[in-house]
Amino acid sequence: MIDFSLRADHPSNTKTDVVAVAVHDNQKLSWAAEDLDKASKGALKAALKSAAFSGGCGKLLPLFNLPGISATRVLVYGAGEGKVLAAKDARATGRGLAAAAVELELAELTIFPLGEDAVSAMQQMVMGVSDATYRYDETKGISAKPKPSLKRVRFGMPEAAAKAAPAALKVSVATIHGMEFTKYLGNLPANFCTPTRLGEEAKKLVKSHDGAALKVTVMDRKAIEKLGMGSFLSVTNGSDEPPRFIVFEYAGGKKGEAPTVFVGKGVTFDTGGISIKPAPDMDHMKWDMSGAGTVFGVMKALAELKPKQNIVGLVVACENHINGKATKPGDVFTSMSGQTIEVLNTDAEGRLILCDALTYAERFKPRAVIDIATLTGACVVALGSHNAGIFSNNDALADSLIASGKKMNDRFWRMPLEEDYQEALNSNFADMANVAGREGGAITAACFLWRFAKKYDWAHLDIAGVAYKGSGKEKGASGRPVAALVDYVMARE
Ligand code: BES
Ligand code: MN
Ligand code: ZN
């Protein structure tokens, strides 16, 4: 794990393996670059000139022999024309700087952000460093790479940002620890990351934060039957993997204070069941537990940050598979709420497991319930992979989540939640069907869940498009939307 900290020395007096300072368009120096230039008697400016450094965002220039400064090396990073780096550029810069430090096999990187909005830039840079240094190696076998050299990242903050920086850094570091945990669970293959394993990971998480007022209950099939979660259990019919219902309770607030409840879809593999999925890219369905992974990541970050709030994390974990006992299209089941459901498509399983968790959430008399799920391909068609979909019965709740998403560049786009769409879920044989037609598939899925979320303020996050990259060098879990949700909680402190 990388150690992040703040330091107070001037850029030129900073003893470190590599110091990173910003230069704008037209080789205009930032405050930190100015300091290095002065100490080196103009050698920095001369080096920029001979390298014809453009200053564009994303550009990097390593310098090795700058006289008069304490650092061994310098990395100049481009900051464009503005006084602040956009969130996306700051993250990419953090990523680029960390990657360069790793390439040079250095242990310590010291970054000086721009003078304005330095705290936000630092937060994004921390995420960028995580992007560049996160490794999945659990099942890589003999091709697993050695751990990256980078051990310490320090931020030298301008005077005006010094006060807000420590708290912000703490939140960011906890956030990337959460995101890296979410990525780890997501990237684990489905033969490793079973519902049973998720239950074990939940207990391990609580154990490793034993000072944090965090506890967990892991329920097995028997306990789930006792709760009457007939809809959830219908999805487990075709699988040999036993299900788990995991309840995290974090008690940082006053006793009896209404908690925020997070609910995560934890389908550890989604074959589609009898309504089987096509073969191409079916491996992606190991990431169908990314909502659950998000709840794990958020709980980890919050256990580290210890906010003065009560938080509940519910994880519904099972496998959607096929055998002789598997649910057949047309089968009807009774949910925990008492409402019956005709399962017309066994591949619309996410809503079937979430609806019972939403009913379970009522017992906490929550201030808000937020579910997170890789729920529909239709949401990916609608929004692509930059924004997750957000559906909510409460404007203020939606607005707060959207604001946190914007701030962390972990965005949500509001989608309609309206009674008009409910009719399509009508069934002649049950209170509702689990699917409507192809039209508005993400919306009708949300409308299904809405029928179980009538007793509290609720938001549904459809993260099918954002939870992972499905191909290429970057193929893997993204850790989204942990950053937005941690910010959402911490903004209430
Ligand atoms: N897990 C899928 C949704 C999904 C699709 C996630 C693509 C990530 C990428 C979900 O269980 C599912 O299969 N949904 C169906 C619903 C349909 C049967 C109404 C879908 O989107 O096709
Ligand atoms: Mn499915
Ligand atoms: Zn699914």
Topology at a glance:
Blueprint: E1 3-7, E2 18-23, H1 31-39, H2 43-51, E3 60-63, E4 74-78, H3 87-103, E5 108-111, H4 118-133, E6 152-156, H5 165-187, H6 195-207, E7 214-219, H7 221-227, H8 230-236, E8 244-251, E9 260-270, H9 290-305, E10 310-320, E11 331-334, E12 340-343, H10 350-361, E13 368-373, H11 377-383, E14 388-392, H12 395-408, E15 412-414, E16 432-433, H13 441-450, E17 458-462, E18 468-469, E19 476-477, H14 482-490
Parallel strand pairs: 1-6, 2-4, 2-5, 5-6, 9-10, 9-13, 12-16, 13-17, 14-15
Antiparallel strand pairs: 3-4, 7-8, 8-10, 11-12, 14-17, 18-19
Helix pairs in contact: 3-4, 4-5, 5-9, 5-14, 8-10, 9-14, 10-13, 12-14
Bound molecules: ligand BES, manganese (II) ion and zinc ion.
Manganese (II) ion (MN) is lined by residues 270, 272, 320, 347, 349.
Notes on the structure:
The chain is of the alpha/beta class. The chain folds into two domains: 3-157, Leucine Aminopeptidase, subunit E, domain 1, CATH 3.40.220; 175-490, Aminopeptidase, CATH 3.40.630. It has 14 helices and 19 strands. An eight-stranded mixed sheet has the order 7-8-10-9-13-17-14-15, with helices on both faces. Helix 5 (165-187) packs antiparallel against helix 9, helix 5 (165-187) runs antiparallel to helix 14 and helix 10 (350-361) runs parallel beside helix 13 (441-450). The chain starts with a strand and ends with a helix. The model has no long low-confidence stretch (mean pLDDT 98). Bound molecules: ligand BES, manganese (II) ion (MN) and zinc ion (ZN). Ligand BES is lined by residues 270, 284, 288, 345, 347-350, 374-378, 380, 435, 441, 464.
